[in-house]
Amino acid sequence: MKFLTIAKKELTDITRDRRTIIMMIVLPFVLIPGLFGVVYTIQSQQAEKATEQQMKVSFFGQEYAPELYQAFADLDKVIILDQIPADSVDSYIQNEYLDAAIYVNREYQESIDQNKQAPIIIKFKGTDSFGITRDRIKSLLTAQENQIITKRMNQLNLKPDIVKAYQIEYKDVASTQEKLGKFAGGFLPYFFIIFGFMGAMYPALDLGAGEKERGTLETILSSPATRLDVVLGKFLVVMLAAITTAFIALGGMYFGIQTFPDIEPWVLEVVNVILSTKTVILMMSLIIPISAFFSALLLGLSIYAKSFKEAQSIVGPLNIAIIFPALIGTLPGIELNAVTSLIPILNVSLASKDIIAGTINPWYMVEVYLSLIVLAGLAIVWCVNWFNRESTIFRN
Amino acid sequence: MIKVENITKEFPLSRKQRKELGDEFKNVKLICAVDNISFKCEPGRIFGLLGPNGAGKTTTLRMIATMLKPSSGSISVSGYDSVDEGQKVREQIGFMTGQTALYDRLTPTEMVKYIADLYGMNKEDFNKRKDYLFDALDMQSFADRRISRLSTGMKQKTSIARTMIHDPSVMVFDEPTSGLDVMTSRAIMDLIRDCREEGKTVIFSSHRMGEVNQLCDDISIIYKGKLFFNDTLDKFKSEMTKSTFEEEFIYRVGE
User: Fold this and answer.
1) Disruptive mutation site among B118, B146, B163, B172 for chain A (greatest number of A CBs within 10 Å)
2) Is the pLDDT of residue A346 over 60?
3) Quick one: which of A13, B10, B127, B203 is 20 to 30 A from A285 by CA?
4) How far apart are CA B112 and CA B246, in angstroms?
């Protein structure tokens, strides 16, 4: 039971380290919800601003289409600028002095009258905020077009139904939870996988390479504790740090969103569905083995390093190796199946998606657990063997 | 009692290390740090392992403390084999190095408690022993202050307390005065003498001839992993052909 003594001491040690506390508690609990809130506020404000902004439009050929011109002129929050030189339209739009230009030629009315298609050209800047200009113009033109079609049908004594062979009604049988799961399930595991890794990283570096660098490793190696005790004691603390950080990241996001003013009701709905007791328990059950894997891997690498600095340079590139499969899990079309449930990190990401959506297949879940437990076990065995090697411990 | 019999320790050389060492080591796969050495440390006596940096002193002491396994030969500490009964060996020894290896974020009390717990000491024995050591070393005033805030001398006292907390019968000192000021070095030397008075087995490594002359009863001279002398200090002195220890050392190792 000496590993418990070691774990107890390591826990006291790391919880007194300011950097560990910042990484483990402050960063996930304060900074991430804070950043999330700031990004959300800015995005909402920009979207609102873009919707409410006056749209500046130039209309060329108003004499050929007076009704269409009037429809634009009557549109709410639209200013028609008549004095724009025709050869400067592109640069005006490019420089955002003008939002769009509408071109109608002399054949417009004739085409309408002869039941033909009337050509209309719209110039706009595709990189404007949220494509709002294009949407607003499209919506007005569709309404105008429908009026013309109705008029033409009436002239031909036809019912409008004749051009609409189907009356389609789409009924989505997916539950709100399912839809939200597919939406939010992608990025949520991405967060806790990254935070689990980050939470394990600093304590692993400190308890492995840091201890070697400080010369305290000899103290512990000359004690009656076995190498297995030392590894297990350290591993438990690193894993606890990883789990705590991942949990705090989830909690921090929940707390941040709940207390954040002006949050959209649908966002709150997403959060409340995601963070139901059952979902949290199932997700935590995934965090534990993946944290065990991260902890053993990081501790092994840290023990191999001669110094804290070397350990940082070894562990740094691993961030990318962790982020990549977590990111793949957020892509649409990638689903949990018999194969993907065996791929570490990706399986956690995909399983979380299905847990949140409430569509998790129990067999795949078992496969995910088995894969993670085997992987974590192998990582621990590797770490213990690594620690038993003289060339690792006394590498310098 | 420590009995070292024909121990050899070889370390594998990596490609990078071979490159760094030059052409001479191009095809060398193993490097011998300790080459077939034998000696005995008796209880109630101070055994000095003397040699320059890189001679193999630390490797030898690490093998005694079971941190390294000998490539060949055997070591027994208080009758326990260092390879087969490593844990028993470690229970007998107190290991101390010159670099005060302490946990900065703990207090001296927590530091010694941690070591005592690893040695399985009960609360009563721990409190008694801790009070004795803290009084003897005048540590009570900073017992609950974080180690990071202590002076070098205070840290060294803490290091002594943690080495002695379980009252080991065998003490291993690896260049214990290295990098320390005169006052702290003297305190360590006194501690080593006290250990002898208490009948403990003491092995002490140093590259300082003066220290060895002041402290040791028996000495071994080690150089490039090989043993050049192994007997009492008195015999070494009586056989000296040169006027100083340093000159005699250089003469003995043939440099």
Assistant:
1) B118
2) yes
3) A13
4) 38
Choices 3.40.50.300, 3.40.50.10490, 1.10.340.30, 3.30.1330.30: CATH for B2-253: 3.40.50.300
In chain A, residues with a C-beta closer than 8 Å to the C-beta of B172 are 222
**How far is it, in rounded angstroms, from Cα A278 to Cα A177?**
13
Closest CA to B98 of B198, B216, B208, B255: B208
CA A73 to each of CA A57, A77, A141, A221, B118: distance values in angstroms, whole numbers, following the listed order = 9, 9, 13, 84, 85
Question: Is residue B200 predicted with pLDDT exceeding 80?
Answer: yes
CA nearest neighbour of A210 among A313, A305, A296: A305
**A55-163 maps to CATH 3.40.50.850:** no
Tell me the percentage of chain B whose pLDDT exceeds 90: 46
Residue whose pair of structure tokens reads 């805030």 in the numeric block: B149
Side-chain-side CA neighbours of B231 within 13 Å: the count stands at 9
CB-nearest to A223 from B12, B115, B146 is: B115
Burial of A82 (0-12, 13-18, 19+ CB in 10 A): exposed
Tokens of A361: 């297949």
At A125-170, the pLDDT tens digits run 877 655 777 888 888 888 888 888 888 888 888 877 777 778 788 8
CB A133 within 8 A of CB A55: yes
For tokens 């409340």, what's the residue? A272
Closest partner residue to A5 (CB to CB) among B66, B95, B118 is B118
The helix/strand/coil state of A12 is helix
Domain ranges (residues) in chain B: 2-253
CB pairs under 8 A between A and B: 69
The model's pLDDT over B59-114, given as tens digits with 9 standing for 90+, comes to 999 999 999 999 999 999 999 999 999 999 999 999 987 666 789 999 999 999 99
The residue written with tokens 């902890």 in the block is A295
